Amino acid sequence: MEIKGVALLDKKTKNLVKRLKPGQIAVIDHQDIDEVAARGLIEKKVKAVINCAQSISGKYPNIGPLLLVQNGIILIDEAPQKLFEILNEGDFLIIRDGKIYRNDEFLGEGTVLNEEKIKAKMEATKENLGETMLAFIENTLHYAQKETGLVLGQYPPPPIKTDFRGRHALIVVRGHNYQEDLKAIRIYINEVRPVLIGVDGGADALREAGYCPDIIIGDMDSVSDETLKCGAEIIVHAYPNGEAPGLKRLRDLGLNAKIYPAPGTSEDIAMLLAYEKGAELIVAVGTHSNLFDFLEKGRKGMGSTFLVRLLVGAKLVDAKGVNKLYKSRLKARYLLHLIVAALIPVLIILAVSPVTRNLFRVLLIQLKLLFGI
């Protein structure tokens, strides 16, 4: 097996995906490759992924590596960390059976993960899952106690122009199956016209689906410049002490923004914003809500999310997986029934019309003459 291509490298996969082009080789440092990262690499049609970390560490059965190899992408696992020191963006690489070369220079070696090896690693994670879950629950409860101010009004949202009163709010996060779920609720979006809130890269997801977000909220680390300039109201998620690293990027782009200092995740404060501003219903797409979601996100607990969902639960509808609830299949007999039903009134009109009756008589005479009847 030999793979050749231009290398692009970044320790943050979500940043690398923005720069990749088809046929290139992605060099990453991503422990436990998650589904969203894998799908991003697949969409870019990379030839190979060289991971300088463990693609599956054994903590939980992350599906990202399996998706990569099932889509024909070569995955090199646990390559040397020194690649980030000796490689330059745009270097031409050759991969032979896990060995990595720059022209004829040997750079290091990793393990080629195929589908069989990945499935074996995923199966082995079941032994550690109980311990991982227990630690996750303990961490969640610990931070839930520390972050009760989220639901006790200690972190009020900033004043904004967008009016939520009497409207629904749709919050979009680039999480599991977000694209399919957005497509599944397209009719709802077009008819109800909810306030559209994109959480970081979720704002790009809205634009990719043909919509313009009303609000973009987050730490601004994974949303494109083009989307930030679309005219949406921008709210930067800041640390509880008011420090907001994302503001610098916006200032460099010449954009204004409000600051929302609060603990927790950006999707948590997006829900709080919609709730506090009077939204009648909050619909969530792609949000993180369970153990595997948060482990994939690199978080060891979900204290803030637990608290926020307790508060907004009566108004919250989670659209995760809605695309799988019902997939219409047009059967041949249904189509035949539809055609027959449509033809009945046409046949009745033809039968009672004097013109068509005379036409039928002429046709009948011609048939009799033709067959000598």
UniProtKB/TrEMBL annotation:
Signal peptide: none
Start and end residues of each Thiamin pyrophosphokinase catalytic domain: 194-229
Transmembrane stretches, start-end: 334-353
GO biological process: thiamine diphosphate biosynthetic process
Matches recorded under Pfam families: SteA-like_C, TPK_catalytic
Positions of the SteA-like C-terminal domain: 320-371
InterPro entries to which the protein is assigned, alphabetical: Put_SteA-like (IPR047795), SteA-like_C (IPR022215), TPK_catalytic (IPR007371), TPK_catalytic_sf (IPR036759)
UniProt keyword list: ATP-binding, Kinase, Membrane, Nucleotide-binding, Transferase, Transmembrane, Transmembrane helix
Molecular function terms from GO: ATP binding; kinase activity; thiamine diphosphokinase activity
Protein name, entry field: Thiamin pyrophosphokinase, catalytic domain protein
Species this protein is from: Carboxydothermus hydrogenoformans (strain ATCC BAA-161 / DSM 6008 / Z-2901)
